[in-house]
Specification:
479 residues, Beta-Lactamase, Helix Hairpins, Heat Shock Protein 90, 5-stranded antiparallel beta sheet, 16% strand
């Protein structure tokens, strides 16, 4: 059994479907055929039994058979060719029959009738000539007194050839029809499997093509109004390849942008280090002021590289998603106040006002604080000396307003792009990844962020995060 199951599982899916369809049809046809054969057999036997029970042995025939059996040499009694086989038998098992008829053996059921135990019995038997007969035994009633005669009974037997021949013919017909049905079912199952699995074949070819060529632009055509499982699978595959293609494109773009941004500080570092090395090799010292300027430049470039690498690591973690175990209920008010303390240290010449209300959100604490710090750093960076930065948190909406030069309208759609920097801000320190990190962190927390021009000049950064003014009750840990 296990070997057969393994062989079936080793077959291709199309062959398995065809085989299972044929097996199911074969089982159904076999069940119907066997049921039909037994029903017909039962009806034919019932008809024979009814005919035997309705047949009556005439008293003259019965008397002539008894007289003939008493002769030393019984003679053949004249009977119509189609007459049933009549047998007189006694309780001791002896019989009296017409010599021209085959002898039907007496069975226990017949003896019970002769002994008066039962009034009649019906059964099948085999005559001495090998023919199958159906036998009906009944008691003998005295014609004059109307009393049942004990110790004697009479049986009427009829050959079953009129039943067995139709049953044999029916069995062959059912067998042939069943065979044709099974073969037809197998062919139909193969055709249905091919038609039904054609979309799966296309999907398989597409997957093999992607695995072989890494071409993620392939798409599987889908009928617009189709909502079956294959269509859903095809749509999921198309969505997956589109996401992978987009991810690859973003990855390539990130690598290209990172390479471009890294090239500038690395080139500057290389130039400064070559100048210092050449001074050591030639023995011509660089003036002290120039040497200090070179070392300061090297330190600044290293700081910029470290910041850029840190931003890239943060952005890559954001792209990978936030693990569920890092997400916590965070007090946005405390996070904003912590970021404000850092912002005041970086812009001591600025006036930073704050009006923050309690608000609790679900996010990764460190990532959320980094995003708010980036927003405040931008406000501090672009605010004029002695300017003001206004920070407000109310009903889950955080606004940071500076009084700097603002952002041109044509540059607003690009402010959250990776490595994008306004032409007017390229001389300022930064990697162009800060706002990208803000956007990704806020989106993962279920919120949204936007920059817009402020009335009277400057820029307003708005962050909206879902949450509540009170912290949810803590759920006790399961021991």
């Amino acid at each position: 059994m296990n070997k057969a199951v393994r062989l079936v599982r080793a077959l291709p899916l199309r062959s398995r479907l065809s085989l299972l369809t044929a097996a199911a049809v074969a089982f159904a046809v076999a069940a119907v055929s066997v049921t039909c054969w037994f029903i017909v057999r039962g009806q034919l036997y019932n008809q024979v039994d009814d005919q035997l029970q309705s047949a009556q042995v005439s008293p003259p025939l019965l008397q002539s058979m008894l007289r003939n059996c008493q002769l030393s040499e019984p003679q053949d009694l004249q009977q119509p060719p189609s007459s049933p086989i009549v047998t007189i038998f006694y309780s001791d098992g002896s019989t009296c029959t017409n010599p021209i008829n085959p002898t039907v053996p007496v069975q226990a059921a017949d003896l019970a009738v002769a002994k008066g135990t039962t009034r009649s019995a019906t059964h099948s038997a085999t005559a001495d000539d090998g023919s199958e007969v159906r036998v009906f035994s009944q008691q003998v009633v005295d014609r004059e007194t109307g009393q049942v005669q004990r110790g004697i009974a009479v049986s009427i037997a009829k050959p079953l050839k009129d039943v067995t021949k139709p049953l044999s013919s029916l069995a062959w017909i059912l067998l042939i029809v069943s065979g044709i049905g099974v073969v037809g079912a197998g062919a139909a199952g193969l055709w249905i499997a091919r038609a039904g699995l054609r979309p799966v074949d296309k999907l398989t070819e597409a997957v093999e093509h992607v695995a072989r060529t890494e071409d993620l632009s392939i798409r599987i055509p889908i009928e617009e109004d189709s909502e079956d499982e294959i269509a859903r699978l095809s749509r999921s595959f198309n969505s997956m390849t589109a996401s992978l293609a987009n991810s690859r494109e973003l990855q390539q773009q990130l690598i290209a942008d990172a390479g471009h941004e890294l090239r500038t500080p690395l080139t500057s570092l290389r130039t400064n280090i070559e100048l210092l090395t050449r001074s050591e090799e030639t023995g011509r010292p660089i003036p002290e002021a120039d040497r200090k300027a070179l070392l300061a430049s090297v330190k600044a470039q290293m700081t910029e590289l470290a910041a850029l690498i840190g931003d890239l690591q943060t952005l890559s973690r954001s792209d990978a998603g936030t693990p569920a175990d890092r997400v916590q209920v965070v007090s946005l008010q405390d996070t904003v106040e912590a970021a404000l303390r850092r912002a005041r240290l970086r812009g001591p010449e600025l006036t930073i006002t704050a009006n923050v209300d309690p608000w609790f959100v679900r996010a990764e604490p460190s990532a959320l604080e980094r995003a708010i710090v980036n927003i405040l750093d931008n406000a501090v960076k672009f605010s004029p000396e002695g300017g003001t930065v206004d920070v407000t948190l109310k009903d889950g909406e955080l606004t940071v307003r500076d009084h700097g030069p603002g952002i041109p309208a044509d540059e607003l759609p690009h402010v959250f792009d990776r490595f994008w920097r306004s032409p007017s801000a390229r001389a300022l320190p930064g990697s162009g990844l800060g706002l990208s990190i803000v956007a990704r962190t806020v989106q993962q927390a279920g919120g949204d962020v936007a920059l817009s021009p402020a009335e009277g000049g400057g820029t307003v950064a708005t962050i909206r995060l879902p949450g509540a003014p009170t912290a949810p009750p803590e759920v006790p840990e399961t021991p």
